[in-house]
Structures are given as C-alpha cells and as structure tokens.
Write a structure and sequence with these properties.
globular, single chain, 3-stranded antiparallel β-sheet, 271 residues
Length: 271
C-alpha cells in the first residue's frame, strides 16, 4: 500500500491470491524500480545511521527492543529487508557486526551510497544464504515480512540461522490498518474492508502480472507464524504517534496515528 512512486502506465490495484514466487518477483522489480524515489522521500526521516522501526519514528536507541544498546557490541546481527541498511549502520556504530540482506539490488546500492562498510547480501528472505547458527540477533524494520506469501518459511529460515536463545525483532504494518482505506486523511478512518479478509493486495500490469504485492495477516496469524517458526513471543509493541512527528508517510499520518495503531513490532526469542 506504499505504491505511490510507480511511474508509467497505471497498474490495476486489486485483491487476489499471489504465491511465493510471484510475490518475490514483484517485490524485487518494484523495489529496484522505486528505490531511488523511496530513499529520496524517506531517507531524511530514516536518517543515514538511525534505526527507526516505522513511520511513527520509534527509534531503537530509545526502545531497546534488541536489548540494551550497550550489549550489542560484538554481536553478529542479520538485518532482513534492509533497504539502504540505515539500521545496520546504527548497529555497526554500537560495535555490532551487521550483515544487511535485501532482495533489491538497487536498495543495496543505496546502502553503499550512504557508506555501509559491512557485508551486503542480495537474497530472498525465504532462502537465507547462511550457515545454521550464524547470528546472535536478527531484525527487520518493515523488510520482507509484509511482502512474502509464506511468512512461516521466513520465520523458519531466521530460526535456522540464529543461535539458540537469539532474538528476532521485526516490524510490519499493524494488521488493523487493513480494514481501513490506505489514506492519511479522514477518509482513512472509516472501516471499508473486513479485517479478516487475508486476500493479498496486488497491483498488476495490463497482462495481469503482479508488479507489487502486500500480504495481510491478522494479529493472531502473525502470532501463530512466530510460534510455528520456533520462536517465543516476548512482546508486541504498538508504537504510539509522538507529538513531535508531523510527517505523513503514505497512509500513516498524525491524524490517524493518534487514533489507531499503524505499526506492530514483534519481539521474539528463538527456542
Ligand atoms: C519498506 S522497505 C524497508 C527497508 C528498510 N528496512 C527501511 O526501513 O527503509 C522493504 C524492503 O524489503 C525488501 N524485501 C521485500 N521482499 C523481500 C524478500 N522476499 N526478501 C528480502 N527482502 C525483501 C525490499 O526490497 C525493501 O528494500
């Protein structure tokens, strides 16, 4: 639902099924084509070396969802759906050893542009190219999870590459938002669809080929995905919209943010 950058012929927005392969291909293409505009529009808010969990501006430096910042030094951290790897840059500044993974080549080029000096890996979150137990921590700020057709596959992969007891923290669009139009103004405050309708949001070209896909899961689905992946859920954080934040980001706005949650952050621990 953050498809405002695409230029050229207007894709058709619909709700229909979209499997693992089609969703992944659509994401790679969309993020490669739109990375420049995304970084131009949101790079300033994200900051080149901050760790922001979502449009509310919840900052890991204050939130400590990965654990106390002072304890991050020396830890091996995998960031999934890293984009330009701003979060990994913050982690590196704390003394951690991040690896930033993304499906989009163009997003990772932006990581190089802003000065990432740690490994950047172009790969799909559903097939992590790392050995078992390679990482102490894994994190994702709106990366991959909202876009994949099979989130349990990703959970299992994260479980595999984490050491026992490792933490996995990820943020997604708050599931309740799917019941409302993706509009920042008052029109985005009236329920327009069933919260229980899991049919993916798909934008497709004139041949019916998906060019952008987002997958909806309810809160209960997300909890079950985490558990099915072999994790314990330690916390579910719903960041409140702070008064200092006056920016709109697609359908996220101060108006809606003060009334309904926009982001859900799942704090999990590997069994
Ligand atoms: C909304 S951006 C978030 C990027 C960054 N965390 C941020 O906050 O700006 C989503 C990112 O997830 C990546 N992504 C989408 N599907 C993915 C997948 N299956 N595997 C890996 N990365 C994926 C996209 O390429 C994109 O860079």
């Amino acid at each position: 639902m953050i498809q405002e950058f695409e230029s050229g012929p207007e894709p058709e927005a619909t709700r229909r099924d979209s499997g693992v392969t089609e969703s992944s291909r659509a994401s790679r293409g969309w993020w490669d084509r739109n990375a420049d505009e995304y970084q131009q529009e949101h790079g300033g808010f994200l900051g080149d070396d901050r760790f922001v969990w979502g449009p509310e501006g919840l900052d890991e430096a204050e939130a400590g969802l990965l654990g106390p910042a002072a304890g991050l030094a020396g830890l091996r951290v995998l960031e999934i759906g890293a984009g330009a790897a701003q979060c990994s840059r913050w982690l590196a500044a704390q003394g951690a050893h991040p690896v930033a993974l993304d499906l989009s080549h163009r997003q990772l080029q932006h990581a190089l542009r802003i000065g990432a000096d740690f490994p950047l890996v172009e790969a799909d979150a559903g097939a992590l190219p790392f050995a078992d137990g390679s990482f102490d921590l894994a994190c994702s700020a709106y990366g991959a999870i909202p876009f994949v057709a099979d989130p349990v596959l990703v959970m299992r992969e994260v479980h595999r590459v984490l050491r026992p007891g490792g933490r996995w923290v990820f943020s997604v669009t708050h599931p309740v938002r799917w019941a409302f139009p993706d509009e920042p103004g008052p029109e985005g405050l009236s329920v327009a669809a069933s919260y229980f309708d899991r049919t993916p949001y798909v934008e497709q070209d004139e041949t019916g080929r998906a060019v952008y896909v987002e997958h909806h899961r309810t809160i209960g689905d997300r909890v079950r995905d985490v558990v099915a992946g072999g994790f314990r859920l330690l916390d579910l954080v719903e960041p409140e919209w702070p008064d200092w934040n006056r920016q709109e980001w697609g359908g996220w706005s101060p108006l809606r943010g003060h009334l309904i949650p926009g982001t859900a952050v799942f704090v999990c621990e590997r069994d």
